[in-house]
Amino acid sequence: MDRRFSVFALAREALRGHAGWAPQWRSPERPQPAYDAVILGGGGHGLATAYYLAKEHRASLGPGRIAVLEKGWIGGGNTGRNTTIIRSNYLFPESAALYDHAVKLWEGLSAELNYNVMFSPRGVLMLAHSHHDVQSGMRHVHANRLAGVDNEWLTPAQCKAFCPPLDTSPAIRYPVLGGALQRRGGVARHDAVAWGYARAASALGVDVIENCEVIGITRDPASGAVTGVETSKGAVRCGRLGVVAAGSTSLVMAMAGLRMPLESFPLQALVSEPVKPVFPCVVMSNTVHAYISQSDKGELVIGAGTDQYPSYSQAGGVQILIHTLEAICEMFPIFRRMRMLRSWGGIVDVTPDRSPIIGLTPVPGLFVNCGWGTGGFKATPGSGHVFAATIARGEPHPIAVPFSLDRFATGRLIDEAAAAAVAH
Amino acid sequence: MLLIRCPWCGDRPEVEFRHAGEAHIARPADPAMLTDAEWAGFLYERANPRGDYRERWRHIHGCGRFFNAQRHTLTDRFAGTYRPGEEPPA
Ligand SMILES: Cc1cc2nc3c(=O)[nH]c(=O)nc-3n(C[C@H](O)[C@H](O)[C@H](O)COP(=O)(O)OP(=O)(O)OC[C@H]3O[C@@H](n4cnc5c(N)ncnc54)[C@H](O)[C@@H]3O)c2cc1C
Ligand SMILES: [Zn+2]
User: Where does the record place the FAD dependent oxidoreductase domain (chain A) (predicted)?
Assistant: First the structure.
């Protein structure tokens, strides 16, 4: 189980017909009666949180017993449903610091976890189609450079050179007027991120328990502090509870009597039939609303928008997909005759300012990491890293300070919504 | 795509409508008396339930009017729509 992956291990198994691989992480059927910290939600963010807690903060957690409780299978939520775009060129310094912290961790993650998460910094190009887009894109470039985050402005001809399938002719309805390119951005393999963190956390003693839904939060009647959780597999005591439940966060926090500044919306994506390598980078367009890359299997991976109404259906309207495909066909005429193979939806938890919430709550012992909405995959390592420190120290990690829940009362919003309209 | 019954125009496709957030959130009568936390509650905190949910819609590409609806957020099925001031479906 704790066998490390290496070129020698691969060669050995190749010769033995791959009969020697063992399960990659321990999978206890049931939780222990008590833990020092319980992480609710086995998506990438929850698993990363557990990994960094075990790796960097065990000493501050008493005996250091840690569990991840997942109601379905790990990575079955938005982690396994997203289009895996990674970038850090957000407008505000607070966001740039948070997302760039993540990108720096992505850069060494496969080695850190000894698991190939297939991080591929192939460049993320965000297109501008109007005068306003150009101004706002250039403003992002300048703001990012001041914050020490790479981002550069490309002319239409440079966009075409960077992404040859792109139609840059001036005659189309929304001509390309330029683009902001973050070369360190790219994609990673979503499942591998969940599996790699689960494997590494398990090797450090974390219990990763699947098919274990949290159905209640128990609290001390006098202090109100968290004392444990009720689950579909029995009661579990814990001193600290970290909620990382994405689209289900409002439901979980209601178990502790809290109302959240969140709404949950369906967000869809789809993939095409696989074709030979044709698309060298990631392209996003907020104005016509489409984003696209090509997976290593050869499928075009295409992201659509959210539906307009809150829902937990994990399915969105077909008109949303059609809208996106129309935009893709106009930007990339060579894809007009491709067939789409599959589409699916996830439920994303959206905050009023489209920035995440990471930190403490009014309930002692209860911590929350949510509100990543349509764009949290890119933050997975950084989110887990700063949230683990927050849980261990009982106070926000410096990068997490601006993302506190009480910013909605103080008014210090981090308004990436107005800045970017769509964020992935 | 949802099929939505405008209380004035009848059944129309969702693309004629704009969702307008959770219903029955009354603006506080005297905002100046509210604490910051209470004001945040009014502005930002939402029930976001998985189940029956009351919401506002506006028939922007039709009569232009606001109305309320009750919908189940797991099935997206409507229990009914009703005009402002009317009672929600039982
Ligand atoms: C279609 C789509 C495309 C996207 N594209 C991008 C993109 O290109 N780039 C990007 O950065 N982001 C993207 N995102 C957003 C990204 O997927 C999420 O922000 C991120 O994956 C959230 O990770 P998470 O670990 O917090 O959530 P999840 O992976 O959803 O994990 C939460 C887990 O909590 C579990 N849970 C919930 N309730 C309970 C309970 N009561 N008890 C136990 N467990 C519970 C769930 O089962 C789930 O596994 C996209 C999302 C979607 C849906
Ligand atoms: Zn009408």
Answer: 36-389
3.30.70.260, 3.30.2270.10, 3.40.50.720, 3.50.50.60: CATH of B3-82: 3.30.2270.10
Rounded to the nearest 5°, which phi and psi values hold at A139? -60, -40
Instruction: Report the distance separating Cα B85 and Cα B49, nearest Å.
Output: 23
ipTM exceeding 0.90?
yes
Of A296, A276, A287, the closest CA to residue A330 belongs to A287
CB contact (8 A) between residue B40 and residue A260: no
pLDDT in tens, chain A (424 residues): 457 899 999 999 999 999 989 999 998 999 999 999 999 999 999 999 999 999 999 999 989 999 999 999 999 999 999 999 999 999 999 999 999 999 999 999 999 999 999 999 999 999 999 999 999 999 999 999 999 999 999 999 999 999 999 999 998 999 999 999 999 999 999 999 999 999 999 999 999 999 999 999 999 999 999 999 999 999 999 999 999 999 999 999 999 999 999 999 999 999 999 999 999 999 999 999 899 999 999 999 999 999 999 999 999 999 999 999 999 999 999 999 999 999 999 999 999 999 999 999 999 999 999 999 999 999 999 999 999 999 999 999 999 999 999 999 999 999 987 554 455 5
In sequence order, the β-bridge partners of residue A267 are A306, A346
Distance A394 CA to ligand 1 centre (A): 24
Inter-chain CB proximity A250 and B46 less than 8 Å = yes
What is the Å distance from ligand 2's center to B18 Cα? Answer: 11
Amino acid at A54: A
Q: Which residues in B lie closer than 8 A to residue A248 (C-beta atoms)?
A: 50
The two tokens of residue A257 are: 């009597």
Residue that the structure tokens 């797991």 belong to: B74
